[in-house]
C-alpha cells in the first residue's frame, strides 16, 4: 500500500516535473505547482499513507526549488484542507458508516474544524494554483501554501 501511495501521490508529480524541467531551464522560466495536502504540515488522523507520502513530496519540492530558482523556475505546493470533492464524499460515506453517522454529519464535522467554518470549493484551490503559476508569483518558490480556512494550527 505504501508503494502504491508513493507511486500515485509523489512519483507521478516527480516524474512529470523531471519531464518538463529541462525545457523550463532552457527557457529560463517555468512554474511547477504540486497539489499536496495540509496533512504534509499537520497529519490527519487515519490518513497514514497520505500523511507520509505528501510530506515526502513537499520535501522534494523544497529541495528542487532551491536547485532551479536561479534559472527562473519556481517550485511550490498548494496544500488544500478539506475540500468539497467527490473523494471527500467517498471518505465521508466510509467514515460515516464506521461511526454510525450520516455522510452529511461527517462533512459538517470536517467543516467545523476550520476557523472559517466551511469546506473549500475546488475553485478556491484552483485560484491559489493559478496565482503561483503566474508571473506575479515570480519571487515565491519553495513554499507550501495552505488553502485550508485556517485548519492547520501551527504558525508556520
Overview of the structural elements:
- This protein is mainly α and 156 residues long.
- The mean pLDDT is 96.
- Helix content is 53%, strand content 12%.
- It has a three-stranded parallel beta sheet with strand order 1-2-3, sandwiched between helices.
- It has helices at residues 2-27, 48-68, 86-99, 103-113, 122-132; strands at 30-35, 73-80, 144-147.
- Helix 2 (48-68) links the parallel strand 1 (30-35) and strand 2.
- The protein folds into two domains: 2-83 and 120-147, Rossmann fold (3-Layer(aba) Sandwich); 84-116, no CATH class.
Topology:
Layout lengths: L1 H26 L2 E6 L12 H21 L4 E8 L5 H14 L3 H11 L8 H11 L11 E4 L9
Parallel strand pairs: 1-2, 2-3
List keywords for this structure.
3 strands; Rossmann fold; 5 helices; mainly alpha; 156 residues; 53% helix
Please tell me how large the radius of gyration is. Answer: 17 Å
Strand order of the largest sheet: 1-2-3
Helix content: 40-55%
Strand residue percentage? 5-15%
Main structural class: mainly alpha
Judging from the principal axes of the Cα atoms, what is the shape? globular
Number of domain units: 2
- Biggest sheet descriptor: 3 strands, parallel
What is the CATH topology classification name of the largest domain? Rossmann fold
Indicate the low-confidence ranges by residue numbers.
none
Q: Summarize the helix and strand pattern as letters.
A: HEHEHHHE
Tell me how many strands there are. Answer: 3
Could you report the average pLDDT, rounded to the nearest whole number? 96
Number of helices: 5
CATH architecture of the largest domain: 3-Layer(aba) Sandwich
Amino acid at each position: 500500500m505504501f508503494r502504491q501511495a508513493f507511486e500515485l501521490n509523489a512519483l507521478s508529480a516527480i516524474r512529470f516535473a523531471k519531464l518538463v524541467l529541462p525545457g523550463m531551464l532552457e527557457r529560463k522560466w517555468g512554474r511547477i505547482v504540486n497539489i499536496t495536502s495540509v496533512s504534509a504540515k499537520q497529519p490527519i488522523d487515519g490518513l497514514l499513507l497520505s500523511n507520509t507520502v505528501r510530506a515526502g513530496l513537499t520535501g522534494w519540492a523544497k529541495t528542487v526549488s532551491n536547485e532551479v530558482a536561479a534559472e527562473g523556475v519556481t517550485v511550490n505546493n498548494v496544500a488544500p484542507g478539506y475540500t468539497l470533492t467527490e473523494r471527500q464524499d467517498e471518505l465521508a460515506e466510509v467514515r460515516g458508516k464506521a461511526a454510525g453517522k450520516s455522510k452529511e454529519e461527517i462533512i459538517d464535522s470536517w467543516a467545523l474544524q476550520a476557523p472559517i467554518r466551511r469546506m473549500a470549493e475546488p475553485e478556491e484551490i484552483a485560484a491559489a494554483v493559478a496565482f503561483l503559476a503566474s508571473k506575479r508569483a515570480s519571487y515565491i518558490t519553495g513554499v507550501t501554501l495552505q488553502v485550508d480556512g485556517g485548519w492547520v494550527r501551527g504558525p508556520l
